[in-house]
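Re: How this chain folds, sequence and tokenised backbone to follow
Notation: Tokens come from a learned vocabulary of local backbone shapes, not from coordinates.
Start of record: The labelled sequence and token lines come straight after this line.
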Amino acid sequence: MNNVTWKSFELDPNAPTEPKADIYDTLAIKYDLSGAQPVDVFVNALTKIEQES
């Protein structure tokens, strides 16, 4: 049997409510991507989600 450890967390109430960049720029910055790579990453993620549902 697996044991589950409950860990609470609090979201930052001062976090911005609107993103500073679009999803492609965010992926490019976070994963050091360039050119069409951020679009490919996003499309691949969506494809995987669709296949799993």
Remarks:
- Residues 24 and 39 are 6 Å apart (CA to CA).
